[in-house]
Structure formats: structure tokens, C-alpha cells
Amino acid sequence: MSENVSNKIVTRFAPSPTGFMHIGGVRTALYAYLWAKKNKGVFILRIEDTDKEREVEGSIEHIIKSLKWLGIEWDQGPDIGGPYEPYIQSQRLDLYKKHALELIEKGHAYPDPYTKEELEVFRKKAEEEKRPFLYRDHRPETFSVWDGTQALRFKTPEIKTYHWNDTARGDLSAGPEALDDFILFKSDGYPTYNFAHIIDDLQMGVTHIMRSDEFISSTPRFLSLYDALEITPPIFVTLPPILAEGGNKKLGKRDGAKDVLDYAMEGYLPEAMMNFLVLLGWNPGGEKEIFTKQELIDIFEISRIGISGSQVNLEKLDWMNKEHMKLLSQSEIEKNILENLPENLKNPKLISIIFDRISKWSEVKKVVEEGELDFAIQAPVYEKEKLIYKNSTKEQITENLKLAIKVLTNIDEKDFSVENIKNSLMGLAENLPSRGELLHPVRFALTGKDKSPDPFIIASIIGKNETLSRLQKSI
């Protein structure tokens, strides 16, 4: 029986503080979070820091910052406490020792009497005989008293075939070859993951474990330990792998896997990142792809988690981010764009032009660096031949520019809006053999570029006097 008597669904995310937060780990946290919130349950953040050799300083703070940026909140955790604190494994050693001593008393654990050199001899012999090395084949007949300085091994109570159900993978099984006397406590005094996470889940009443597929092979050993502890295992939900672009292998650091906070630095919205990650392995059904956080909580079902790996598609992420940007208020859009602009370009009239050209906030600086906004602060320099539209003559273009000046001069300065400018210029353009004979030279005169926002918007931004000045210069 679990020590937690609550009937609530309880999930957890239990990362190791060994470096940056890979998106695979973040997705695990996200699924666990959504399932708990969907069912008005409890979501726990727990830090598994018993592998001291791999621990990276500052990682716990980094984990917390990453999850908070994404919008994942926990009900219990190292920073806020809870009924089962502490939530950092290295601070829970007494609990693990208590359960270890109970296993010893029941005959399910024993001190490892062998040195590394002796174990290596056993391994080499198994290799020579072309059979798998199993520690249980060398289990000693008598055991000394465990004093905490030796490794403590689990004595597998029964060598048998295990069958279990995985919500995502269905019915699974593994034969006796998957069982062995694994280490519960290392000689450095810290428990192994294989032991500590089971004790923590037991105490905290965890009902569902979201995990990566690498843990499937270890499940029989976990089940054997659950049997020895006389507890009912939680529900396993094995998530599909996240694949590198190309789909040939799991996404890893060498394939461009990034820290989730790198996406924040690049100007992605946390809502978009959450939306993107949840669809890497989960299918909501239907055609809709853009979801708010609350919508995801409302519709999330673990039964719709897939089996096949999902590729990271950054073009899809950019598209999804832009769709979420469109959901922001105009004031929020203005704030984010303006804070990425240099002082001489902090012009609210530029917001719509910039917004059309970006899919994340970091691209605002790219637009500036590529000179797409130069028209707003300086008259362009260009070769006069570029004003000519296709097969038009210099005389035709000159005459069209003069007509443009004439109609724009007639617009009062206070009414120099996009709509009025467009109406005036299009009235002229529609009477020409090709509208490009007017619109191309006007655009080029104002920006010096073949591709730019339409000339009506440009003129409204730089104002009547500057527009007329640039057109006159082009003539």
C-alpha cells in the first residue's frame, strides 16, 4: 500500500541536475503537468541528485527557471516545500536507509562483498563463455552486516517472466534474463536512481509515471522491487522519442538539441513552445493545432500519446510561434518589438511592418541589421536605372513620378494616411498600361529596394514632406 492515502492523481517530474534542460525532459514534465491539472490532481517537482559525480553546479536553479518560463507550475517542490519535503534526494537519505534496512530484514538485500577487480573477472568469464553477465549468478551464500560503506544490492526474490501494462505501449513482458541483483545503495552512501525513485514515488503517492522509452528495459527490475516492498506499482506511461530532423535518430546535443532557455533567448513565446512540445508525441485529434495552455489542460488525454518518434521541425515551431504572437494584445506586440529596436527606430508606425516580417522577437534585430528599416531614418541611395520599370522609358517614368507628386501634394498633411495615399496613387496607376509603371518607381524612390512594404505604408511612415522630397530627387 502507498503511504499516501489520497485518491488524487499524482504525477511528478524528477530531473537530475546534470546540465541544461533538453526539450525531451521538458516534454516529460509537460505531459505529467497536464495530466495532473486535467484531473485536478497534484504535480510534484523532485530533484534526483544522488549521482554526485555528474552533478553540475547551478542546475537546480536552472531547472526551476526553465519550467517556470514555460508556464509549468508545481504543487510541491524544492522551492515551495510540501507534505513530503525535502524534495531533493540528497536530503532524504534517512528515508532510503530506513527502507533499505527493511529489505535487509526481509532477506531482500545484502552487502556486495566483491571488489571491482573481482567483478571484472566474473564479467570476462561470462564474455568468454558467450553468455550475459548476471550478478545473481555470483550471489554469495552468506552476507555480512551492511555498515553503509559497501554497496548494497537487491536480492531478486523470484526469477520469473514479468508482464505489465503501459498506457502508451500496451501489454509488455520480459523474461528472467531481464532480472538481476542491482545496486540499491552505492559505496559512497547515496542510493541509486533504481531504488530512490521507487521509495519517493511510494511516499509521495505518485499514481502515474511519465518516462522516456529507455526505462522499458529496466521495468522488470522495478517490478521485482515493488513486489519485495509489497506495493502496487504506479501506472507507466512511456513517451515516444523525440527525433532529430531527418528522423533517423534520437535528438541529442550533437544534433543541435538546445537548452529550453535558448528558445526563450531567441524570442519564442512560452505558450508557443508548450504548444509545440505537447504535439511531439501526442495527437489531440482533429485539424486544430494552435492551443492555449488552458485548452491543453482541458483536452489532454494520456490515451492519445503515440508510440512513434516525432521529429523536431523548427519551421513548424516558427509558424506556431507566429500564430501565438497574433493572439497577443497590440500593446504587448508593440512592447516586445520596441524593446528590440535601436533608439533611432523606435517609431510606433514601424510596428506593423516589422510584425509582418518576423516569427519570433529575436528577428526584429535581424530586420534592422539587413537594412529593411533604413528607409525610416534616411533617404535611399540607388542607381537611377533601377527606377525604370521593365520596358518603360525614362520619360514615361519621369512623367509618372511627377503625377505622383501632384496627387500627393493635394493631400493635407494631417490626412496623409495609408488609405488616402493608396487611393490617390491607385487612381493614377489604374489608368496606366501597367500599375507597376507607377508603383515600382515610387517604391524604389522611397526605399531604394525592389522588395519592401508597399509604398503607401512607407509614405505614411516617413510623412508627406519626406515622401515628396524623395520623389522629387528621383526625378
Beta percentage is 5-15%
Q: In terms of per-residue confidence, which ranges show pLDDT below 50 for 5 or more consecutive residues?
A: 1-5
The CATH topology of the largest domain is what? Rossmann fold
**Head-to-tail CA distance between termini:** 89 Å
Number of helices: 18
Superfamily (CATH H level) name of the largest domain: HUPs
Task: Work out the number of β strands.
Answer: 11
Rounded mean pLDDT score: 94
Instruction: State the CATH architecture of the largest domain.
Output: 3-Layer(aba) Sandwich
Output the structural class.
Answer: mainly alpha
Task: Describe it.
- By secondary structure, the protein is mostly helical.
- The chain folds into 4 domains: 92-239, 3-Layer(aba) Sandwich (Rossmann fold), CATH 3.40.50; 253-325, Glutamyl-tRNA Synthetase, domain 2, CATH 1.10.1160; 330-376; 384-474, Arc Repressor Mutant, subunit A, CATH 1.10.10.
- It contains 18 helices and 11 strands.
- A 3-stranded antiparallel sheet has the order 3-4-7. It has a two-stranded parallel sheet with strand order 1-2.
- Helix 14 (394-409) packs antiparallel against helix 15 (418-429) and helix 17 (455-462) packs across helix 18 (464-474).
- The longest helix has 16 residues, at 23-38.
- The chain starts with 9 loop residues before the first strand and ends with a helix.
